[in-house]
Each structure stands twice: as C-alpha cells, then as structure tokens.
UniProtKB/TrEMBL annotation:
Upper taxonomic lineage: Bacteria, Pseudomonadati, Bacteroidota, Sphingobacteriia, Sphingobacteriales
Organism: Mucilaginibacter rubeus
InterPro entries named among the record's database cross-references: Glyco_trans_1, Glyco_trans_4-like_N
Superkingdom, taxonomy of origin: Bacteria
Domain Glycosyltransferase subfamily 4-like N-terminal residue range list: 16-198
Entry protein name: Glycosyltransferase family 4 protein
One MF term in the entry's GO annotations: glycosyltransferase activity
Amino acid sequence: MKIAYISYEYPPDTAVGGIATYVHQVSRMMLARGHTVEVFCASTHRTISEVVDGIKVNRVLCTDREIFHTIILPFFETANEAGKFDLMESPEFSGDGLSIKRNFMHIPLVVRLHIPWFLVDIINNHYLTYLQKCRFMLSGIIRGKLYRRFWKPRNTKTDPDYLTTMLADQIHTPSISLGDIVARKWRIDRNRILNIPNLFAPGKELLSIPSSTNTNTITYIGRLEVRKGLVKLAAALSIVLKAKPFIKVKFVGGIQKSPVKGLDMKEYLLEKLKDYRDNLEFTLVPAHQIAEVYANTDICVFPSIWENFPYSCLEAMSAARGIVASREGGMKDMLEDCDGGLLIDPSNHTEIAKELIRLIDNPDLRVKLGENARKKVATAYSNEKIGALLEENYSKLI
C-alpha cells in the first residue's frame, strides 16, 4: 500500500504533542512492514521535501494550525501526480486532512481520533463557574467590547474536526472512551468507530526496573495543568501527607496555568500544600532520563479529568510501578482488564487519597499490580499486534 499521513504535527519541527509521537511511530512501523509511506506536515521555519529514514516527509512553513489543511493541499497534489496514493490518514484535531479529502474524494480517508476541540473545551473549562462567566462578559462590556463566549459549544457546520470526521471512510480511536464520546456528541454509529490502540514499545531500561522498591515516593509525570487533575490531586495529597508525613511527592513536567488568576500550577500546588513544602519536588527531565525517575518512585498517580491514551501511564506500567489513575478515558482500557492499577474518580479527592494510602500501606499489593501491568504492556501495544490490525482495516478500503 502507498499511504499518506497528513498531520500538522511531526518531529522534529512540530513535535508538540501526542499526535506527533503517533504519526512518527506509525509511519516508521508501516514502512518496516513493507509499505510506501509519505508524510505531509508543518514546520515552524522551513518548507522542504526530504527523505528521512526511508520516509518522504513534505514540510510546509506554517505556524497557524487552522490554515494548515489548505496550505498543504498543493504538496499533496504534486505527490499524488507522481504516484497515486491508496489511502490517507489524518487526525480529526483541527481537520488536518480536510482540504485534501475534499479535493480527492476518491482516495479513502482514515480519521484517527486524538482529542477533538469540543472535548478540549469541556476539560479546560471544567472549573469555570457561572460567576466567572458573568465577570468575563461584564469585563468586555466595560471595555466597550462583546467578547465571544469561549465556553459556548462549537458549531458543527464550521468545526473542522467534525467536518473531517464526517468525510472519513473509516474512523479509528485509541481509547474506548473517546470513541463513545465522539459517537454520542456527533451522532455517529458507534460500530463505525474501530477500537485500535496506539503503538507503544517499552524500553529495556523501564522493563529492567525491579518491581519491588522502597523509595517512599509518589510521582506525577505530565504537564502541570488543570486538565491533568492537579486541583483534586492537591486536595488528596494534603490528606496523604498528613497521614504519612514520611512520603515525598515529585512533580515532573512543564508548568502551565492554574485555576487561580496570577498563579501558575507550581505556585498553586505550593500554596495548597504549604504545610508540606519540604515533601515536594518539582523538576523537568529529558526523555532519555525518564527511566531514572520511575526507578526512584514507588507509586505513580495520573488523576486526569479525562485523557485519551497517555504514554506516561504506559511507561509506569512498563516500570511495574504502583499506579493510581483516572477511570475517565484511556487509562481504564490500559489497567482494568489486567488488574494493573487502582482506578479512581478524578473529581473525588478523598478517593484519590484513599487509594494512594492503600498502596503505601500494602507494598505487596503494589508490586502485584505493577507486575500485572508490566506483563500486559510487553505485548498489547506492539508493532506486530497494532501493525496487523491497521493492515487488516486499511486493506478493506482499497
């Protein structure tokens, strides 16, 4: 098959998130399985077509994601004239493949769900109160402006995420939860959305970490932001640290805004946990050193309000850590069927605290759950398994 992957994100120029990781991995995997692969992506500083590790990568200078789908179209047209594509794949997010599909309706389109903007809006505005909405609108009136209500539902008639997905010949989702949400919101037959996880190959450095450790450390890995559930985690940790003052808590990730104006998330956490500041550590770690972080923790906590397919949870599973994770989203798929961790309601801080304390008090349980998780992750997301699933479903479109 000759496959085109269309994505604003692609390393190294636009490696801004999980979409870039996925497209980079899947393109290399499909090439290794004998297919011809071409990538159409953005760059922050150049326009170039180059061959990288056997894959032709077409990069177009574009720093505005909203217009990428129109700017990339001529490059696809030229490439398709040189050799017809059998199919193309695009994320739903920002409609990266929208213009290409509209101009090449005869080429099958696979839309892979990552996280549509409507869901980003819901998560980001999770703690926005009615009073805050009123204050926002009033501030505009005072300035003689009518501010757009950013929490207002998106219009499907103009939403590129929706329009691209409606043009899809096949829809894939990494998590069951995301497929359910999109099907319900956009009134799509859930049977049309195929459950196909992302790739993940655990590194030897993670798999070699002993399952039984005694570091008395809880670690959160990810961006420090509201949608990752850190508001409720702060409340939970105040309970945990009061009951277990010997525990250390490490936050590993970039610092974003908090729900309190004027405070970033690190400042917010330090304020909420001011009685336990000596127990806290904040750091950033390059990817090649992340195994050391897992080796020096007993428990990982991922309390996201909702998350699709977090690689940090898969890394923790590979390291056989004790895991306390949100049941809202893809981590439920990862952990529930293998009894690989404790799932919590991310809106319930007492439940988060209870399960963290449970793992602190029961090291044998923590080790057992960690070993279960490691056993699953060793094969469940492998190139062999996911590659075969993609080939099987891609071939149905040709």
